[in-house]
Amino acid sequence: MLSVGEPIPWDLCNRQGKIVFRKGFVVNTEVSRERILGMKLRTSLGSSGADATSHPQEGYTSGPLRAIDELADKVSELFTGICLGLHPELSELQSLVESATALCARHPDTCLAALHFNHGRSRQSLHAIYSLFLTQRVANRLSYEGADLVALTGAALTANLGMFEFQDEWAHQSGPLTDEQNRIRLQHPERSVERLQTLGVNDTSWLQIVRQHHELADGSGYPLALSEADILEGARLVGLVDFYLALVLPRIGRPVLAPGNALKKIYEDEKKYGKQIAETLIKVIGVYPPGTTVKLASGEIAVVVRRNKVGDTLQPQVAVVRQKDNRYSVEQPVRDTGDKPYRIVGVYSPVKGEMNQAYMIKVWD
User: Fold this and answer.
1) Among 19, 71, 308, 344, which is least packed by CB within 10 angstroms?
2) What digits encode the pLDDT tens for the residues 229-244?
3) Which one-letter DSSP state was computed for residue 174?
4) What pLDDT does residue 184 have?
5) Class for domain 60-285, per CATH?
6) Neighbours of 45 (CB within 10 A)
7) For the chain, what are the domain ranges?
């Protein structure tokens, strides 16, 4: 029973088993209670067994990957509350932005790796967190700092707030969006701005980046079909990151692209976002980004865990997960692929039913 003023006694999950509200969340009004009931959520104890605790990465009890999952849970609770009209404090959003940017600054390679394999939380929550991470990495190379960086990362996290409550459903929809769903999609930049203003965000750069993040330099974007001169650089960056995540995050009806293939599409479309921004993002992700499973000349299978000491993406450091005799490696030795015996000879694609090897890595720092 969901009661006003009482903490819920269990996690509430969507149809895919992803947690939307954590145990202990308090429903403050009858209107909110009715809205939550209308979302058709179920408890983590439901008969289907689709509990979020079934995901492999729940085994991480500490470290940056656990912190990422916890940030995604906070995004889910905070953003859903905003969508339900619960009026959380602006300080909660500001704290979330600060925590996410600090985590990415401390563990840049692990945060980049996570977006390529760590998909156990709700898609819309992870999309928001990973958008901030990747935007921050590119912004650092473009020399953003201070208030400009805060506005940019805040906008990256909240750009899709205007359609947050629909994203998970759409990601699991096999057919095309309906006319009504497309209307919501096309209006979401302005709706995101409205929700942020209601929350108390008054940073004009933050709001304008959110408003413009789907505008394209060739004038084919939305909602206003602006020309390149009228679009903020930050908006083009957030839009490009959003495009990349749409290519690499799993969803029904759209094949997930390997990072290299996704970067090829970005290169083909660089004029829509600006050459400098596109080239910088390509350099940040690199040929073999962290989280990529690769084959080595030694016959071993390994996962890229970090750039090498000079930041070279062609010869990163990897952790071995499978030996050349096909046995799994308990020690997971770290190899420098700049050494000829351990050079990368190709990307390894898991066979059907095989766990992504990145889940097995113990050295994520």
Assistant:
1) 308
2) 999 999 999 999 999 9
3) S
4) 96
5) mainly alpha
6) 11
7) 1-52, 60-285, 293-360
